[in-house]
C-alpha cells in the first residue's frame, strides 16, 4: 500500500553517543549529510560524552575524553546552520548505568545488582537527575525540548524501600513509576516553564486510560512510542496512540530505527529490515484519527543496547539505511525518485551496504565511505566458513585432534599443510583488520577501534594462532 508522506512534524536522527562517539569533525560532516537527506532535527543521547562538571565530573567517559563544552556548542551551531533542532536525551529513571556504576552512586540504585534503575524513593536521586538536566540545559542555549528517557525501568518495585511502599493497600508498581516521572517532569516545568518534555512510552503501555489520567502526567509530557520491528503491528500501535490521546496526551511522537536494533552484536546494517519498519510507521500515521497531533518521529540509531553491552553497527555502515528510511518517510514509499535520491547522494549502486559497490575513481560521496567498505569486506571474511570453523575442518579434526596434540603424535606433512593454511587466513585477517583500524581511528577515538577489533576480529584470530603455535611445538618433537 502506498501511504501519504510522513505528516507534518520533525524527522529527528538519533545520535547515541554511549559507544563509538564520532570525532567532532566527523560529526559535523554527518550533520550536514543528515540535513541533505531530509532530517530536520537531532535527538542527542550524550550519556558519558557530556562534559559534566563539579560533583558530576566522575560521569565523564574515561576510555576516551568526553566532548568539550566548545565541541558541544559547535555541534549545535552546525545543526542550527542547517535549520536543525537539537533535542538532548538525558535518562532520569532507567538505563542509568553510566551514572549508577560509579561507587559514590551505588546507594541510589533500586537494587544492588541492577545497575540501570534509580531508586525512586531517595530525594538525592531526584537532585542528581535535576543537576544532570541543569548542566545539559545550560550548555544548550535557547533549548525548548528535553527528552527524559524513562524506558525499560528494570526491577522497579524489587528494592526494599519499594516493597515497603507497595505494602500499603492500593499502591502499584505503575503508580510508583508514574510518581517519579511526574516529580521529575514537574521539577523541569518549575525550573523551565517553556520546556517541552518527551519521554519513552514503554512503561505506560499496559496502563489503563484512567491510570494515566490520574497520574498527573497529562500536560507535562509527550510520550514517544518506539517500535523497531519490521513487522510492527499497525492496528495495535494505532490503538496505543489513541489510548494516550484519550487519556489527554494528544501530543505524541513515534520512534523507528535505522540501525542498532537487529541484535546486540550486529556488525553490518540491513537496509531492508529498517525500511520495512518505516513503511509500517507510515501505515500507522495514515491510520490515526484527527485528534492525535503527531509531533514527529525519531529515527533511532542505537550504538549499544545499554551502557554495558557491546557495540552495534557503526554509523558509516548504516548511512545507506538511514538515507533510504528518511527518503521513504518523505515520499510515502520507496519510490524510484526516493531510490534515486539515495543512490545519487551517497554514490552507491545499491541501498544495501553489502552491495553498494566500490566508489568510482576513488570518489567518496558520503563521510565514512572508505571505512564502510573496509568493514563490509572484513565482516565477510570473518564469516567465511573456512575461517570461522577452521578447527572443525576435516584435516584439523582428523590429523590434529586434541588427543593427538596432547601426545604430540601427529603427521608432520599434513600438520604443516594445516599450519600453512591457518597462517594464510591469519595474515588476511591481520591485513584487513589493520586497514579497518586505520580508517576507524580517523573518525572515532582509538578506544573505539580497539574495542571493535578485540570484539570482532581477535576471537576469530585466536584459534588460528593457537593451532599455528601448537603445530610448531608438535612438529619440533617429530622432525630432526
TrEMBL record:
Leading EC class: hydrolase
UniProt GO BP: carbohydrate metabolic process
Any coiled-coil regions, as ranges: none
Catalysed reactions, as listed in the record: Hydrolysis of terminal non-reducing N-acetyl-D-hexosamine residues in N-acetyl-beta-D-hexosaminides
Keyword Hydrolase found: yes
Signal peptide: none
This protein's name: beta-N-acetylhexosaminidase
Organism: Scomber scombrus
Amino acid at each position: 500500500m502506498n501511504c501519504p508522506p510522513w505528516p507534518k512534524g520533525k524527522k529527528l536522527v538519533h545520535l547515541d553517543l554511549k559507544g563509538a562517539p564520532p570525532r567532532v569533525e566527523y560529526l559535523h560532516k554527518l550533520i550536514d549529510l543528515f540535513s541533505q537527506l531530509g532530517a530536520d532535527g537531532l535527538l542527542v543521547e550524550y550519556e558519558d560524552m557530556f562534559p559534566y562538571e563539579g560533583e558530576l565530573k566522575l560521569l565523564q567517559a574515561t576510555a576516551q575524553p568526553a566532548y568539550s563544552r566548545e565541541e558541544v556548542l559547535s555541534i549545535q551551531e552546525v545543526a542550527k546552520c542547517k535549520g536543525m533542532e537539537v533535542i538532548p536525551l538525558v535518562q532520569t529513571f532507567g538505563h542509568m548505568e553510566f551514572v549508577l556504576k560509579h561507587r559514590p552512586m551505588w546507594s541510589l540504585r533500586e537494587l544492588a545488582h541492577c545497575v540501570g534503575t534509580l531508586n525512586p524513593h531517595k530525594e538525592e536521586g531526584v537532585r542528581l537527575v535535576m543537576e544532570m538536566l541543569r548542566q545539559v540545559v545550560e550548555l544548550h542555549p535557547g533549548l525548548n525540548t528535553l527528552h527524559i528517557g524513562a524506558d525499560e525501568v528494570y526491577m522497579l518495585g524489587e528494592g526494599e524501600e519499594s516493597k515497603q511502599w507497595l505494602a500499603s493497600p492500593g499502591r502499584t508498581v505503575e503508580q510508583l513509576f508514574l510518581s517519579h516521572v511526574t516529580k521529575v517532569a514537574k521539577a523541569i516545568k518549575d525550573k523551565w516553564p517553556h520546556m517541552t518534555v518527551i519521554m519513552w512510552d514503554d512503561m505506560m503501555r499496559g496502563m489503563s486510560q484512567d491510570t494515566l489520567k490520574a497520574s498527573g502526567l497529562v500536560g507535562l509530557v509527550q510520550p514517544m512510542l518506539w517500535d523497531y520491528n519490521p513487522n510492527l503491528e499497525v492496528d495495535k500501535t494505532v490503538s496505543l496512540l489513541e489510548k494516550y490521546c484519550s487519556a489527554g496526551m494528544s501530543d505524541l511522537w513515534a520512534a523507528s530505527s535505522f540501525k542498532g536494533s537487529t541484535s546486540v552484536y550486529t556488525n553490518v546494517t540491513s537496509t531492508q529490515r529498517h525500511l520495512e519498519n518505516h513503511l509500517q510507521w507510515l501505515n500507522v500515521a495514515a491510520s490515526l484519527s484527527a485528534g492525535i497531533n503527531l509531533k514527529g518521529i525519531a529515527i533511532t540509531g542505537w550504538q549499544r543496547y545499554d551502557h554495558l553491552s557491546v557495540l552495534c553497527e557503526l554509523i558509516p555502515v548504516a548511512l545507506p539505511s538511514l538515507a533510504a528510511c528518511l527518503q521513504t518517510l518523505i515520499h510515502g514509499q520507496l519510490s524510484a525518485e526516493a531510490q534515486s535520491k539515495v543512490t545519487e547522494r551517497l554514490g552507491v549502486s545499491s541501498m544495501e551496504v553489502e552491495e553498494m559497490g566500490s566508489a568510482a575513481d576513488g570518489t567518496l560521496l558520503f563521510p565514512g565511505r572508505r571505512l564502510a567498505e573496509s568493514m563490509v569486506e572484513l565482516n565477510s571474511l570473518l564469516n567465511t566458513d573456512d575461517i570461522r570453523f577452521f578447527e572443525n575442518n576435516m584435516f584439523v579434526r582428523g590429523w590434529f585432534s586434541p588427543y593427538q596434540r596432547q601426545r604430540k603424535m601427529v603427521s608432520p606433512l599434513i600438520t604443516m599443510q594445516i599450519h600453512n593454511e591457518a597462517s594464510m587466513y591469519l595474515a588476511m585477517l591481520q591485513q584487513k583488520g589493520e586497514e579497518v583500524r586505520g580508517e576507524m581511528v580517523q573518525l572515532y577515538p582509538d578506544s573505539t577501534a580497539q574495542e571493535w577489533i578485540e570484539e570482532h576480529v581477535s576471537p576469530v584470530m585466536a584459534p588460528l594462532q593457537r593451532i599455528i603455535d601448537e603445530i610448531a611445538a608438535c612438529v619440533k618433537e617429530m622432525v630432526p
